[in-house]
Structures are given as C-alpha cells and as structure tokens.
Amino acid sequence: MHFAKSKLFNRATFKHSIRDAETLPIAPFKAAIKKALAVLEEQQVQGASSADLVGHFTWMIDQLLILIWNHQKQSLDDRVHLELVAVGGYGRGELHPRSDVDLLVLLKKDQYDEAKEFVESFLRFLWDIGLDIGHSVRSIRDCVKEARSDVTVMTNLLEARHLAGDKALFELLDTKIRAPRMWAPDKFFIAKTQEQEQRHAQYQDTAYSLEPNLKESPGGLRDLQTILWIYNRRYGVRSFRDMAEQKLIDRDEYRILIRARNILWRMRSGLHLITQRHEDRLLFDTQRTLADDFGYLDTSTHLAVEQLMKRYYRTAKQVMYLNEVLLASYRVTHSKRISLAVGRNLNDNFLLKNKMIEQRSSKVFKRQPSAMLELFNLMQEHKITVIHPDTIRSIRANLDLINNQFRSDPDAHKRFLALFKHEGDGLTNALARMNAYGLLGAYLPSFGAIVGQMQHDLFHVYTVDGHTLKVIENLTRLRKYPDEFPMASELLADLYKPERLFLGALFHDIAKGRGGDHSELGESDAYEFCIQHGLSEYDARLVGWLVLKHLMMSHFSQRRDISDPDVIKEFADIVGDIEHLDNLYLLTLADIRGTSPKVWNAWKGQLLLELYNATRKALRQGVAKPHNVREHVEDDKRAALELITQQLGEKSVNEELIQTFWNTLPGDYFVRNEPYYIAWHASSLLLSSAIDIPLVTTRYSERLEANMFFVFAPETNKLLTQVTGAFDRMELNIIEARLQLSSNGFALYTFNATVPESDTARSSDYARFIEARLRKLIIEHSGEKFVARSHSSRALKHFPIEPRITFLFTSKSYTTMEVVAQDQPGLLHNVARVLQTHNLILLSARVATFGERAEDIFYIRHGDHSPVVDKNLLQQLESELSEALDKRTSAQKQA
C-alpha cells in the first residue's frame, strides 16, 4: 500500500507558516517531526510500503535541513564556500524513523575557523528540534586524506549525496575519491569482504539468532549494503535498480533483492517506532508487537511471532544467497588469475576450473535436470567446496524443473541417495548449499516447509532446517575429527549402511509444525521416502524407527535411573538389537549437540555413554537373562579393593575395616556406583578420623568436566538441606546427586557439580579450600530457609516457565518425581526443604538444564523403604514445590 508524501509533510504549507520569523522557531520543526513519526506509525500498522515509509521520511528530513541551512546561511560570509552533504544510511536515502542523520559539512578550503560559528549554530538547531545528528566538518583535501587511510570513510563518501550549498564542491570531491588510485576496486573489494567476514564472525556466522540484529547479523541489511558498496566502487551504481539497468543482476535477482530489502526495512522501521529509539535488534520484547503490526495471528500450529520470525529467517537466507552469488560473480569477473586458469573436464556436464566446479554449457540443467544432483555427487567425489556463481544462478533458474516427474525419476533417486552413501565428510557442504539454493526444499517439499521455522522458546536456538543440518554436520564431524568422540567415531566407521543413519537425521524433525506428534508423522514420511527410493523394507523401517525413537535415548539417559538394571532392561527391550542401539546412540549424540551450544555438556555425554554401554552389555547377554546382583556387588568390591591398594599401598589398607564398612551399605550402593567411586569413598574414610566428620572431599573429573564431591556424615532429618544449602552459598551448581544411607546411621552423599572458578577447578589447593569451606558451612547452616529467588533475565520475561510436577510409579521401592521449572539457584535445596517437612527420603537426583529450563528427576521414598503413593501427600508435594520453585511474576501467573 502506497501513501503520498503530503500526508507526512507539506513543504509549502510549512514554509508559509514560518515566513515572518526573523529567527527560525524551534517549535514548528519539532511539531512537524512529531507529526511525521505519528503518521509513519499509523502507516506502518496499515501495511504501507516500506519503500514509502523510508523514502518519504528521508525526503521530509531533506526538506527541513535545506530550509534550515538556507535560512542560516544568510549570515555566513560569502567568501566561505561550504556544502551540506548527506552520508551513511541517510546518504543512501535510507533514513528510518529513529536513525541517526549523518551529515558532512564540506569546505572548499581549510576555512574551519571562518565556518565554525555557522556550523555550531546549525548543528545546535538540529539537536534542539530533536534530531540525532552524526556529523563531521572537513575540507575536500581532508576528506580525501581520511578516505585514503580509512575504508569506512571511503565507503561513506561513495554513497554521499548533495543536500544544500555549493554543489560544485561535492562534484569535485566525488571525482577525487573515484580516482583509480583511491582504493582501487580490487583493493576495496578485499577490504569490504574481510570486513563482512569479521562482522559475521561476531554473530557466529549464522542468521538464525533468537534475537537477530536486522542491520548487522548475517543476512541483514549490511549484507545488502556490502553488495552495493562493492559494485558502486567499480561501476558507480547507487541502487539495485542501477545494477539491473547495467545488467549486473538479472530480473529475478533484482526482484528478490528489492523484496528482501523491503521486508527488512519494514521490520527495522517497525522496531524504531515500537521502541521509540534507534533499535536494530529484534528482541523478544518487540517480536510479538511487530508480529501484530504485520497482521500475523496465532494458529493451532504456529504462534504469530513464529510466523514473523520464519519470514525474517527466510528473508535473511535469501540475502545471504544473493550476497554469496553476487560477490563471487564479482570476484570471478575481475580476477585475472581466475580468468586465465585452465579448466579440467570432470564429465560431459561439468568441469573443474580454479578449484570451482561449473557447468560446461548453460543448457546442462535444461537438458538433464538430474544434473543438478549430479553436481553435488561430483563435489563429494572430488572434494570440491566451491561452485561457480553462474552455475549457482543456473540452479536457481531451473528449480521449476524439480516437479513430481523429477521426484519420481530413478536417476534422481540414485543421485540423491549417493550423497548419503558417500563415505567422506562432504555431505554437510552439499546439503547446506542445496538448502541455500532452494534445491533441497524443492526435491523434498516436506523439508521446504521447515525452512526458517523457529520454535519460540529459549531451548531451540536454530531453525528446524538449521538444526537438521547441524545434526548431520555433527555426524560427519565424527569422520573428520575422530578425537572429539573416539568411541562414536569408531562406531560410525564400522556402521553397516551408514546412509540409513544420515537419512534418519535428515527426517528426524521434518514433521515439526504440522500439529500432532512430529516423531510419528516423521516416521511415516521417512518410511515412504525410503521405499520410493528403493531401500529394502528392513532398511526403510529402521530409518523410520530412528525418526520415531529419536528422543527416547536422551529421555532414558537424563530422566531415568540408568543405574537400575530394570531400567536398562526396559530400554534394551525397546531397542531390540545392537544395530538399532548403535544407530540411535549416534543420532542422539548428534541431535543433542545440534540443539544449542548451552544444552550439551560432558555430563550429558557421559550419561548417554553409560546408557549405551549398559544396554549393549544387556543385549549381548540377552535381555531376558536375570541380573545377578550379588555377583555384581562382589565384582565391584574386588575391583575397588585393588584400586584402594594401588592408591594407598598394601600396608595402609585395612581390608577387614573396609569390609566392615561395606557391610553397612545396601546392595544398590554397589550397583549405582562404579568401583572408582567405591574406592574413593572407602579410602577417604580410611584417611580420616572421627574429628573430620562431617567429611567433605572433592576430585575433578576430566571425563565429566565437573567436580565430584563426597560427603559423609551422621544422618539427620536436616542433613540434606544443610548440605545443599552449603553448596548454594558456595555457588556450586549441582548436576547430579546420589544419596545412600548406611545401616549404622550415616549418610553418603555423592554430588557432581560445576564450580564458578572453572579455570581453577583442577587445582589441588582450590580443592582443599572448597572442602574446608563446604564443611564449615554444613556445620553452621541450619538449612531451614528456602534459597531466595534470583532476578529473572530479560529473555525469561517473555518465556515464563510454570513449574510442573509429575509423579511416576515404575518401581516397588521408590517414586519418580519429575520437576520442570525455571533454572535457578538452590533448586535442589528448595526441593529438599519440601521433602524434609514430610519426612521423605531422597535417594538420588538428576539435574538437567536446557537453556533456561531445568528438567530434574528425583527418586523419593518413605523411611520404611516404600514408595510415595498417597494421593493427598502427592497433591501437597505438588502444591508446595510449585510455590517454592515458581519464579513467574504475578502478571505472568494471571496470564
């Protein structure tokens, strides 16, 4: 929708209103700007063209500045020659509602003193009427000098435009800065591409940030501007229309560029109007309001804000594609080294030239559409990572050939599957490029539906397509970097038909956003795809099973007691055989690591590995074989004694005393603890005396990347709250807790925790300090108070997490309590406080965090070893825990 400039500002009427003023009045100018911003806000909501919003506002500010300049210039000595020039975004004609108005006062000569009073008066007036001014005052000579040494100054001057004053000065400056030796085009290209690479690195080289910067993030406005700057320097173009008229881009590229620019412009203008300040970050605070401005409504499957962000991510993806193609095209066109290189034919369709693959004829894809897939097969085979920009353009131009007939073509099936069967690490690059060029979504429409789809929470930091490709990248990294996860790399190397695993990764989230269970819907898609592409019934079912069960292994490892043989048997029954286990383990490892950098940690990796090893052992023994607990316990005791002897020496080991201590412990102590821990606990007690009780000792685990703590003390009703309270006061973040009681009244607590001073966590001096400090706090701390709630982060204000308490009855000896709440200091302590008031025993706890959300598992029972099943008591626990852990504000609770 377009609107007239006159709605924003009537120059003639305004000029008439101030005609009799000897000195310019401030009030009318301020009122005009205020009215213009109100009109812009109204037009933004009504869906006005972003080109009109930005262009008309730029024009209006032009008119005001010209009026002010011409009025005040009357007092300037005629011998002083100067000009008012718009630079930066304002120079490009892209002034958003709260953007800085960047100005250059250009002097013919070094007449700084003569112009000083006039310039100060002019700028003061602009500030008084409420404009945010960025300014510089330079002579032509100084401009040239600054531009020669600073590419940013050079860039600003390239896009400058005349506003008022002596236009001849600007024309002279423009001639000088466009001289061949002034940042020659090739040198300028290198500087601007390096600048872009550095900027992208600041944003982790991804457009898929939860709170992207519309201007600076990859795929943002700055990427569009970089294209124009580089082409401006060589060809003198100032707009994408100029580029199209000079045949530097085709009509389709021009259309995409303008559409992407207009969407980003509208979002940026909307942000400025909503926040009433210069704000380019698409923050959670403004995403919902902006979604309303765009007219999006919540649906049964997608929130309005998710629809807005999907539009943004798809736009950013298009910008990144065009930025890549147009800069690559520029480099190829103007590089003598590339133009003189001799090509080598790869086959009848493609050649390799200067490390780039390109089509031998512009009609290759028209003649043989499946060659679009063949291109990526050749890239894998010859380890090629770069495609000639003209070939990329040809792919885009022929995407309409990927229709139902193409998708049913056996040759296309063969070539697509070949990508997944290749044993190198080129699959990641191939799929990423196919996604960027629209080829992957065209071949798999169900994948195209998830492109740019974001889940509006703090757990998923990638779009669904971005996450999927990240998972596949994590799998290929196992081939490229075997030292990261040695065992997983060995499993992948020995895996039979690894293409099934990679296909499972491709499809594992493909049904997100449709409503219903995405695992079940995805299983159906995966099975149908595999059958259509000629996989056997068994292979198709295995791929479908991976999609269906892709969340199961992380659930068992993090939310179930995997030291319980019955849990291992249950999981082994579901998995069925080692082949399914190997595939599921590798997919789960890659999936968790591909969700968010904050989600993965060494402890979760260790839990996953423990579940894998225990299940593999159970499957090899036969899942129906009964578990011999007594034999297990005796094996662990023998192994622990050997470790104690190695650590302390044979003369220092009192085996009779150790056996007496072990006889006081329940059998599940040995089942739940490895020999290493059993030996550590016993040796710590051997080296201590009664005066050391409560005993606190710690060791750093490289495997877990966390500190392990052992606490031994007489059991009391308040002990657990005293211990957890001490941990919280030391700011130790507990990630796992195991608690056992001896028959003679002592408690053995084992904690895994991360410490604030992670750099010093390995230090023995730090370990001794933290042991002494914890012991002192345990003795002094009553444990009677709940830990105070900390201030919520800004992001959490938009993603309040309501505590959810669930009870499961899967064991005859304990009740499983699942707690989902906002991650917070003192969570375990506050849970322990509630359990203490009801005289309940906490056997063990698993503390897992996913972004800002804690998902913790507690195993609880009565003092008589019976599970907690009384409905009234369970309701009380749910109510009291919800109150203790709820960090939402009153308004959020009401909402």
UniProtKB/TrEMBL annotation:
Name the reaction it catalyses: guanosine 3',5'-bis(diphosphate) + H2O = GDP + diphosphate + H(+); [protein-PII]-L-tyrosine + UTP = [protein-PII]-uridylyl-L-tyrosine + diphosphate; [protein-PII]-uridylyl-L-tyrosine + H2O = [protein-PII]-L-tyrosine + UMP + H(+)
Keyword Electron transport assigned: no
| Region described as Uridylyltransferase: spans on this chain | 1-345
Q: Which family does it belong to?
A: Belongs to the GlnD family.
The entry's free-text remark on domains says:
Has four distinct domains: an N-terminal nucleotidyltransferase (NT) domain responsible for UTase activity, a central HD domain that encodes UR activity, and two C-terminal ACT domains that seem to have a role in glutamine sensing.
Q: Does the keyword Transferase apply?
A: yes
- Keywords, sorted A to Z: Hydrolase, Magnesium, Multifunctional enzyme, Nucleotidyltransferase, Repeat, Transferase
The protein's organism comes out as Arenicella xantha
Protein EC: 2.7.7.59, 3.1.4.-
Q: Which GO terms describe its molecular function?
A: [protein-PII] uridylyltransferase activity; guanosine-3',5'-bis(diphosphate) 3'-diphosphatase activity; phosphoric diester hydrolase activity
- What does the protein in this record do? Modifies, by uridylylation and deuridylylation, the PII regulatory proteins (GlnB and homologs), in response to the nitrogen status of the cell that GlnD senses through the glutamine level. Under low glutamine levels, catalyzes the conversion of the PII proteins and UTP to PII-UMP and PPi, while under higher glutamine levels, GlnD hydrolyzes PII-UMP to PII and UMP (deuridylylation). Thus, controls uridylylation state and activity of the PII proteins, and plays an important role in the regulation of nitrogen metabolism.
Q: How is its activity regulated?
A: Uridylyltransferase (UTase) activity is inhibited by glutamine, while glutamine activates uridylyl-removing (UR) activity.
ACT domain residues? 708-784, 816-892
NCBIfam families tied to this protein: UTase_glnD (TIGR01693)
Query: Could you identify this protein by its name?
Result: Bifunctional uridylyltransferase/uridylyl-removing enzyme
The cofactors it requires, by name, are:
Mg(2+)
The HD domain is annotated at 464-584
SMART domains, A to Z: HDc (SM00471)
Q: Which SUPFAM superfamilies match?
A: ACT-like (SSF55021), HD-domain/PDEase-like (SSF109604), Nucleotidyltransferase (SSF81301), Nucleotidyltransferase substrate binding subunit/domain (SSF81593)
- Which GO BP annotation is one of this protein's? regulation of nitrogen utilization
Q: Sorted alphabetically, which PANTHER family does this protein's record hold?
A: BIFUNCTIONAL URIDYLYLTRANSFERASE/URIDYLYL-REMOVING ENZYME, BIFUNCTIONAL URIDYLYLTRANSFERASE_URIDYLYL-REMOVING ENZYME
